[in-house]
Recover the amino acids of this structure.
């Protein structure tokens, strides 16, 4: 029996960080194997959505060529990934927002399909990849109806995506510990080792 089609979702690629471990460079635009890191997430996400959003806080003119829309944090002090997620939720055109980091070029369609299928089966909770015992908050799919509750948590000072999502309803999509598909190339050593 064929599987049901995947539900439509908006996709948010997080590229708005400070890049501290990269010496302050804009991580999404650093090259890996001849292409900007962000281009790998974009190429993968395109087959899953007609609403591709990139959260960036600088180099908007470059990122504009990769996305349908850009968003930025509502604060200039790089307050972390939850700020980018809030901005993505505010503009998402579909009922769910799939969140991906810009620096995981080995991510594959299988993991995204697993997140989407889990979300289709239980659409009212956040689904997040969990590798072994390690939760991966930047690989999540979030119901857009949670936007107001996430805003409320933000206004109360909560900045941890995992903490906020766990309070709103969170289910794991499990994958093996140390799964190489989730490797973040977020230091010069990791980026230039391969």
């Amino acid at each position: 029996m064929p599987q049901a089609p995947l539900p439509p979702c908006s996709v948010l690629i997080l590229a708005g960080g400070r890049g501290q471990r990269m010496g302050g460079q804009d991580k999404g635009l650093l090259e890996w194997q001849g292409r900007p890191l962000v281009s790998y997430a974009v190429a993968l996400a395109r087959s899953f959505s007609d609403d591709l959003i990139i959260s960036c806080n600088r180099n908007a003119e470059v990122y504009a060529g990769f996305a349908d829309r850009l968003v930025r944090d509502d604060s200039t002090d790089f307050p972390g990934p939850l700020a980018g997620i809030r901005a993505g939720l505010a503009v998402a055109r579909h009922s769910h927002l799939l969140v991906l980091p810009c620096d995981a070029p080995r991510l594959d369609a299988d993991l995204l399909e697993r997140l989407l299928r889990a979300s289709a089966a239980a659409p009212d909770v956040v689904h997040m990849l969990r590798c072994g015992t390690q939760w991966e908050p930047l690989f999540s799919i979030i119901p857009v109806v949670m936007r107001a509750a996430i805003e409320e948590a933000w206004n109360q000072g909560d900045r941890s995506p995992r903490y906020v999502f766990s309070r709103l309803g969170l289910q794991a999509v499990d994958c093996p510990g140390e799964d190489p598909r989730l490797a973040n190339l977020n230091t010069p050593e990791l980026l230039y080792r391969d």
Summary: Residues 86 and 151 are 7 Å apart (CA to CA). The longest helix spans residues 109-121. The chain has a mean pLDDT of 88. The helical segments are 37-46, 60-63, 81-91, 109-121, 147-155, 161-168, 188-193.
